[in-house]
């Protein structure tokens, strides 16, 4: 997608090359300017180097690369997060999980985020509740490097541990366990569409029926939950009934699902009455 040197910013904005929001974000990133500067410098003509940088970014977006990966960041819960191909891109619907967690977190509560990825959930909770003790787990060393960077970037304390689910926290208990695990079934067409094509497959799918990670969390959480502790999990649009059944079979109480702003049952959880 060539953009000619000498093209003004005003003319560039009138070119219907991409989604207007994506195009604005990428142009600002390529030039290192703000959205305000994009408007106030509308007569600015692009140099050859600037035109080449913009052209390359726009083409990569046309080829499907996520905007968040192209600019290296994404906003979530009002905070900025570093992202890259090693982690999922934080999505607005996951903010529901953070809100539900904050509602159920006691003073100085202990929180465990399983499969943390970019650490968006854990950092958002720690930022909103500085009194909380937050632990984040991930099996990916690459993800943990990004997670630690995001905790530092947002000036919060999160203990980030390498762990295959519960292995690194043997003997520990928490007031709240949250997770946005891989829940897309193997072969689902969405895995070959849009941004998902570029995100880490292991963070998206369990390479099975979409419920294996959720089963592991539901089964292992009771021995790591304090009495009255909550387990909250994000899942797919059509999985709420199945996840409720998993929780009920393990004697969780107050089992229920919550809907996101699109009306989709996005998070399901339950409370552990006693340790077991």
TrEMBL record:
Q: What is this protein called?
A: Release factor glutamine methyltransferase
Can you tell me which residues bind substrate? 180-183
Class of the enzyme per the UniProt entry, highest EC level: transferase
List the catalysed reactions: L-glutaminyl-[peptide chain release factor] + S-adenosyl-L-methionine = N(5)-methyl-L-glutaminyl-[peptide chain release factor] + S-adenosyl-L-homocysteine + H(+)
- Leader sequence range is none
Ranges for the Release factor glutamine methyltransferase N-terminal domain? Answer: 21-72
The keyword S-adenosyl-L-methionine is annotated on this UniProt entry:
yes
Q: Give the similarity note.
A: Belongs to the protein N5-glutamine methyltransferase family. PrmC subfamily.
Q: Which organism is it from?
A: Pseudoduganella lutea
What residues bind S-adenosyl-L-methionine, as annotated?
A: 138, 165, 180
């Amino acid at each position: 997608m060539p953009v000619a040197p000498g093209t003004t910013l005003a003319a560039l904005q009138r070119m219907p090359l991409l989604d207007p929001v994506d195009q604005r974000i990428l142009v600002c990133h390529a030039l290192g300017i703000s959205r305000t500067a994009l408007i106030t410098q509308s007569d600015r003509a692009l140099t050859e180097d600037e035109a080449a940088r913009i052209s390359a970014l726009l083409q990569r977006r046309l080829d499907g690369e996520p905007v968040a990966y192209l600019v290296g960041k994404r906003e979530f819960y009002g905070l900025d997060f570093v992202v890259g191909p090693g982690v999922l891109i934080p999505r607005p619907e996951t903010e529901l999980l953070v809100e539900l967690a904050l509602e159920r977190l006691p003073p100085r509560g202990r929180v465990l985020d399983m499969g943390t990825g970019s650490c968006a959930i854990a950092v958002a909770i720690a930022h909103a509740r500085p009194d909380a003790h937050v632990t984040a787990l991930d099996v990916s060393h690459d993800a943990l490097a990004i997670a630690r960077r995001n905790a530092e970037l947002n000036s919060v304390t999160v203990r980030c541990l390498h762990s295959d689910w519960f292995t690194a926290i043997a003997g520990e208990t928490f007031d709240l366990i949250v997770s946005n695990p891989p829940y897309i079934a193997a072969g689902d067409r969405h895995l070959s569409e849009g941004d998902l094509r570029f995100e880490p497959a292991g963070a998206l799918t369990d390479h099975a029926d979409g419920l294996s990670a959720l089963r592991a969390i539901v089964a292992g959480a009771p021995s790591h939950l304090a009495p009255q502790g909550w387990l909250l999990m994000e899942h797919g649009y059509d999985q709420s009934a199945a996840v409720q059944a998993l929780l009920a079979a393990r004697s969780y109480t107050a089992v229920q699902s919550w809907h996101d702003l699109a009306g989709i049952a996005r998070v399901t959880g339950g409370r552990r009455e006693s340790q077991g």
